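Q: Could you fold this chain for me?
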Amino acid sequence: MHWLTRVKDFFGVQDMTTGRPMNKLIQFSLPLLIGNLAQQLYNTVDSIVVGKYIGDTALAAVGTAGPILNLLLVLLMGVATGASILASQYFGAKDRHNLSRTVGSTIILTLVSGLIMTVVGYLASPFLIGLISPPADVAEGAVVYLQIIFIGILGGAAFNILSGVLRGIGDSFYPLVYLIIACLLNIVLDILFVARFNMGIAGVAWATIIAQAVSGVMCLIRLVGMKNLIDINRKTLVPDGPISKRLCLLGLPAGITQALFSMSAIVVQGLTNSLGTAVIAANVAVMRVDGFAMMPNFTFGTASTTFVGQNIGARRIDRVRQGVKDLLKLALITAGVLVACILLFGHGLIGLFTETEDVISIGIRGLRWLALGYIAFAVSQVLQGAMRGAGETMVPMWISIISTIVIRLPLAYLLAALTRSETWPKGSPDAIFASLLISWLLGMAMTVFTYRRGVWKRRLPEELLREAR
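A: Sure. Below is the predicted structure, expressed as structure tokens.
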């Protein structure tokens, strides 16, 4: 196991306030990227198993449930973002007391928010699925899937929030290990429950929540064992008023942003549902491929938040500028490679989910529309991550409101109305993908403009603000 020790040492807890920014960012980002890809594999394996063993209707049901699930997870998203930002800043400042209080408060908030989501999500699932009016057979499967996911949502909440804390203090190795374990467990249980026991969509949902619970428990054990950095005891496992308030204030805009994305997706899902089961299934397949294409962008966004947060905590504004430049280079190169792969292998990627030629054809068109957008989104994620690391979470929220609500929603319906034909009486599926691409491009333009204007600097302490000027 000597090799594992060397890997752990190389990718262990990263103090990003020292050393070459590029080297630190690569060390932090690589396991984070692999971990994010493994997490995306959760949904992808679910979709492949559903599509291959149950059929396109079931695949459409799982996809229909996705935006509803993301909408109801807004509270958890806010807690995770705020905890990650605070943890990175206190770690960078070497403030053990406040770091311990942050972790303790986060554990309690995770428990409370997870229980709230269990009750609200389970009870609201039928109503929310009904709002987007999917076909009856799709709606039935979507409700079953959602309700089971919410029964075990606390495990997923524990992993997503506590792994965010671990990454905030520079540990991206152990979350990776836990994700790989959970992902492998999820694959085995998916095949066992669906292919062997014929449990259908319910089997996919049960497999997911069991695997997530395992990863959540492992994250908690890891945090409790980090006695060299933090203290987890009866004194710290009590919500700290000022820290909890700051955590929520930092996380609220991110939670609202996630809610806006989800509400937009729900409204657009209503448009997608009106175009028929083939378009719904194709959209699910495209979004699964999209999830993998987006993972590097989300990875570099998280790395940007952690790097900037730690260096602001350490009062190293000079490293912030260099780190953001290095991350932009990494993000653009990675996005370019991924776009080339998507354009070259699009048919095979969509074919993983379905054997229906009409669904594959629609899916390939969708991927071609979105390809350029991944490069734009790479820039947005790095710069918005830097803003969040500096404590400026409002600007990214407003950019999301404008690009997602003001631009994308009306544009999708407008393009659908303009593309009606005999083949597509309610509009072409191109309207869905084109509107998303345009919103990403405009979102990138707004992000670059606000970052270059230095809006993120207004959250800096006064002595850092003078240096940043």
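A (continued): The mean pLDDT is 83.
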